[in-house]
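Late entry, written up from scratch paper. The run itself happened at the end of the previous shift, but nothing got recorded in the book at the time, so transcribing now.
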Amino acid sequence: MDIKMQSVDRNLLLEFSGELDHHAAKNAIRELELAVDAALPRRLVLDFSGVTFMDSSGIALLLRAKRCMDDLDGSLQVCRVQPQAKRVMDAAGIDRLVHIKREGTV
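Output as recorded:
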């Protein structure tokens, strides 16, 4: 799992690529928390366009991101979600907690 970060004007973009499974999720959650703590964003965007596989561990990452942004009174958006990851998110009902945009730009 590779994570690219970009922070501009309290907007933080994290671009994920690779497999988001049990092994990768632990590190990804840690990287997410470090990035949020450093940037203190008002808006966090998670770009999943490069995620080739996601299991339920990816849901834990999304819930942690939601909690981090709730603590900052900020917003969270997940975008460019690939079909396999979208099925996992739909099965978990995560769209009731997190704004998910399947296609389009960040």
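The beta strands are 2-8, 11-20, 43-54, 75-79, 99-101.
(Scratch paper discarded after transcription.)
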